Amino acid sequence: LSVLEALRSSEQLDSIQFSSPTEIGLADRAIVKESLVLPLAKTEVETWDGLRAKTRNMIRKAEKLELCSERGSQNLRAFYELYAGHLLRKGIPVHSYSLFEMINQEIGQQAELIVARKSGEIIAGIYVFFGSSRAVYPFQATRADCQHLAATQFLIWEASKRAIARGVSWLDMGESRAGSPVYQSKVNFGGVPEAIYYYNLSNSGSPAPSAMRGVTFGEIGDRLVGLVHRGMMNHAPLSVRGRYGGWHRRKGRLLF
Question: Which residues are bridge partners to 114 per DSSP?
Answer without folding.
Answer: 71, 126
